[in-house]
Amino acid sequence: MTECIGDAGRQNGCNTLYSDARFVRYYEMVRAAEREHELMAPYLRKTDQVLDIGCGTGELALSLHRMVRSVLGLDLSSAMIAAAEARRIRIGVGNVTFVQGDMLTMAQNETFDCAILGNAVLSEVADSSSMVSFIRRVHGWLGSDSRLIMTNAVFSPALLCDSCSAGTILDPETGHRISVLYEGNKVDVDSGMWSTTIAFKDARTGQIDRFPFHLNFIYRKELVFLLSLGGFCIEHEAVYQQGAMRLIICRKKELPNL
Ligand SMILES: C[S@@+](CC[C@H](N)C(=O)[O-])C[C@H]1O[C@@H](n2cnc3c(N)ncnc32)[C@H](O)[C@@H]1O
Question: Whole-model pTM?
Answer without folding.
Answer: 0.96
